[in-house]
Design a protein that fits this description.
Number of strands of chain A: 19
CATH topology of the largest domain in chain A: Nitrilase/N-carbamoyl-D-aminoacid amidohydrolase
Oligomer: homodimer
Strand content of chain A: 15-25%
Strand order of the largest sheet of chain A: 5-4-3-2-1-14
Distance between the termini of chain A: 65 Å
CATH superfamily of the largest domain in chain A: Carbon-nitrogen hydrolase
CATH architecture of the largest domain in chain A: 4-Layer Sandwich
Largest interface: A-B, 115 and 115 residues
Shape of chain A: globular
């Protein structure tokens, strides 16, 4: 048996790894038309765009606006009217649900051909968990039929429709298997339109799923994914074609727009570059920064508060890779509690990165606040209020520079800090984008080393990597005075937040006693109110703080009382 | 015909208008048991708690945690073991979906009797729109059967299950009608367990729906609703019993916990107090403040920045009603741009309300910042940066007082300002709860007048009501220099945000030209990033800024280009 069962027709298919801007219907339509024309010039018979390519992912509640939905329909008509003659284009867009009962929209794929009626199919499995809210807007399709293009039967389906495999279903299993149902109707090629965001190791997960499906059904598989970033979500692309035996025949480069081609008659293998976890993380964050700044299109430049520590150093280095050194500036804002290294390491970083650098000492502002507050604070000891005045004075200065010179502040806090509330609201949390909000501290270290290795020289000063982490808000303060060592903390946070384990399971798996684990989990819960007011953060894990993790702010989970209740019930039932 | 068709059994039913704390399983279970015991003492046969009474509404992603779901099951067992002998109790709780396919939970109502197996039914219609995310967690039940208690057939269903009426379906219609399906199986009484939040006029909407259902089906209807507030959602209670002809037989007071009784043999009417829109709004906000402060249980007291304007005055007056004057303090923070009234009106307000009052002039802090920034800002004109330094210096001072004395800052911005971005992030937006975040400016005026009328004397200084609104961040600044008059603005905002109309429809309905309307809508869109970082706000309209309105931050809706595209297509199709 031929391992790459050939299609009975030969055809050149373009995979459009496309980067739409959410809601920019006219811009997305214009660029869709340009890509169709380019693919036609380059000899493609068919071009396949990703899920919701006309509106970007996710348009969220723009879809609740009837005028917006009308405009989407117009954009589809415009694109249809411009499909090059003889060519087919599959695009993704919301369309009105023809049934008056149920959600008002379908999440559809449309096959457009010049002068031909539109062939439409719609998504059956609607992710409604984590960052996904699809059932908020869409009615699931009750079935799918292959779309036919030039005699070729295309098993077109959308993103989640292919994710119903036991070994990959984290949240729940669905009662339908769209891919199997399409195959049962006879298809030459499975075609998946995705808007599948990046998370650690997502490339390998996709490969696992698609390989499984190819082998199970003996059909080649083509997947186009969005690329780019929209607020917190980063789309890595990773579009590809697998042969019927699962082997890779075509693959687009990750983290960039690409228009690649696959000839259905070809079974030449494609060699995908190695996907290293930290390299991908680095590339994802660089893309996320660039996209946030460029797509908001309000500010060209960013400004970052540099503390001499590793978080601000890594943030600045990533920003420079995203935007170039001339669009990044660093400001160090020493106080009386700052170590010498806070300024000198920041200076060294700025020199290494080639960015503008300013020093704005906060002493006079802190003194002014303490003077104003003296009548009220007289006789009280130095505490959180005074620590926060320092952090907030820095926030005011950074925002003033940002406002004056039309820059965006990037915040530098990492996921471990954000989890524990080890950050000051309206202080170091002030800014437009939280670059490391989903990166645990131990991964920040890995990123720092990676950045230096990649550059082949010191970009992040080694002293920033090696010094013990400190907020420097009081004399001789160290993170480890308030927090467990980061490797211990991060393991517990990862299990609680990303794997959604609780006290008992974490204690058992890590060997730390329940009270210790409980202390950390309670701190995470207690600081939900801070994260509510945090700037958006780039999501890189399966569970970031953001749209994908919706915890109540006012809540009273009492783990000690719950344990007591459960023990009492256990005793009762065994008594 | 008897207008109030009698039940064939006579029974005393307790309506438990209960206020659970989200996630506080042991506390909620303990209080559930106390209420059951009290109802038993007072002769009730049956007590009916609201939807999700064991966990509060909404537990959000606590439900994603398997250990939490185990603990809920334990809490149910505990409650069941304590149901008074001879009595029935209907509670609301998530239970595991017995089907391995589909969402892991059901949103259930459980009828508990001492020593008897539990009778369970589950919600069929799962609201997944606005503030509701139920399909994120729950599988819809495929059907419901009446629960039988002492020979009485109870048509138990849950909240949204009764809301599938054409004239009330804003988002979509469902393909099932649980109430009709229950009635078709024969029921003596319809029983609805709700967690139905307050919004303007919600009392009348509920009356309309229940009256319609009673008359359509000729069956009496009992509804218990949660009361209290959880972060942004305010539950007004409004539990009631309607006779088969729709007339009201029992009604609980709104905005407070209540255990009321209805004897199924009685057809004595109940006179519900008038529900005036502004009175309800006032009571809802007072409850929302009290609950947020008391349920977070971190701070006893609040502190409010007083500007002399109407927003801070109304916020302070509401806080005093919620917490008492001894738990509220006001701080005025004049600058060189402040009018004389900013201090004197604040002082008058504090005197009227009987709250502590301090004056902290910001001049020294502003000067210090300007001094620090001088090397960078030299030669630039006074602008947004300088305005924001003032607002942010106030934010730092307020937060310092809050941190030092363990108080929570209440922010004072209204919905109109928040919509237009007429507020400073990390300045006047700093705080734990945004009291007026869902109250349009024109309603803030109505509240001010209501507060004074209700008190029979001046609590809000008349000069605060009558002076033209101003941010006082530059000489002679007035809101109307930057914004349209509030009655005009609010009408457009209401249509855009609450009714989800867009430019064309709003222009047509209001007579304002499209460009003018577009300017306002674009400003609302552009300021999404500010609202992302706003503190939680109390929701009082059908669409607040918060969990119920999920707009993309990075987005590029270009209304001018869309209009052009649609006009071009129209011309083409008529050409």
């Amino acid at each position: 048996m031929n391992p790459t069962a050939k299609l009975h027709t030969s055809m050149k298919i373009a995979l459009a790894q496309f980067n739409p801007i959410v809601g920019d219907l006219t811009g997305n339509a214009r660029r869709t038309i340009q890509w169709m024309e380019r693919a036609a010039r380059e000899g493609a018979d068919l071009i396949v765009f990703p899920e919701l390519s006309v509106v970007g992912y996710s348009p969220h509640d723009l879809l609740d606006n009837a005028a917006f939905v009308d405009a989407v329909a117009a954009a589809i008509r415009l694109i249809h009217s411009r499909v090059p003659k003889g060519m087919g284009a599959i695009i993704g867009a919301p369309v009105r649900n023809p049934n008056p009962i149920g959600k008002k929209l379908l999440n559809a794929a449309l096959l457009l051909e010049a002068g031909q009626p539109v062939q439409t199919t719609a998504k059956m499995l609607l992710p409604t968990y984590d960052v996904y809210d699809e059932y908020r807007y869409f009615e699931p399709a009750t079935g799918q039929e292959p779309l036919v293009f030039k005699g070729m039967r295309l098993g077109v389906h959308i993103c989640e429709d292919m994710w119903n495999l036991e070994e990959y279903a984290t949240y729940h299993m669905y009662d339908r298997d769209p891919v199997a149902e399409l195959v049962a109707q006879g298809v030459d090629l499975l075609v998946n339109l995705s808007a599948s965001p990046y998370a650690h190791d997502r490339h390998h997960v996709r490969t696992g799923i698609i390989t499984t499906l190819c082998r199970r059904h003996g059909v080649p598989f083509l997947m186009t994914n969005q690329v780019g970033a929209n607020t917190e979500l980063i789309f890595d692309g990773d579009s590809r074609v697998h042969a019927a035996d699962g082997s890779l025949l075509a693959c687009a480069p990750s983290f960039q727009e690409a228009l690649i081609y696959w000839d259905t008659a070809s079974d030449a293998p494609c060699h995908v570059p190695a996907h290293d976890r930290i390299t991908d993380l680095h590339d994802a964050l660089v893309l996320g920064i660039r996209e946030y700044v460029d797509k908001t299109a309000v500010f060209d430049d960013v400004v970052i508060g540099l503390s001499g520590g590793i978080d601000s150093a890594v943030t600045a280095a990533l920003a420079v890779e995203a935007l170039g050194p001339e669009r990044v500036s660093g400001i160090t804002m020493p106080s009386v509690h700052s170590s010498e290294g806070s300024v000198s390491d920041s200076e060294a970083l700025a020199r290494n990165l080639g960015i503008a650098f300013h020093e704005l000492p906060i002493r006079d502002a802190v003194n002014a606040f303490e003077g104003i507050l003296k009548p009220l604070f007289e006789g009280t000891p130095f505490g959180i209020a005074e620590e926060n005045i320092q952090a907030r004075s820095r926030g005011v200065l950074l925002m003033a520079v940002a406002n004056k010179f039309s820059r965006m502040v990037l915040t530098t806090g990492n996921k471990s800090e954000l989890a524990m509330g080890y950050a000051t609201l309206y202080g170091d949390m002030s800014g437009g984008l939280a670059v490391l909000a989903d990166v645990l501290k131990t991964d920040v270290y890995a990123l720092a080393r990676h950045i230096n290795e990649r550059a082949g020289r010191e970009r992040i000063p080694v002293s920033s990597i090696e010094k013990p982490p400190s907020a420097e808000l009081r004399p001789d303060q160290k993170d480890e005075d308030s927090l467990p060592p980061y490797p211990v903390l991060d393991e517990i946070l990862r299990r609680y937040i990303e794997e959604r384990q609780d006290e008992g399971a974490i204690s058992e798996a890590t060997g730390h006693d329940r009270a210790f684990v409980r202390g950390i989990l309670d701190a995470v819960d207690r600081n939900e109110y801070k994260r509510k007011q945090a700037p958006p953060g780039l999501r890189v894990s399966v569970k970031g703080f953001g749209g994908g993790r919706r915890m109540p702010i006012v809540a009273g989970v009492n783990r000690a009382a719950i344990e007591e209740m459960m023990n009492a019930l256990k005793e009762e039932s065994t008594a």
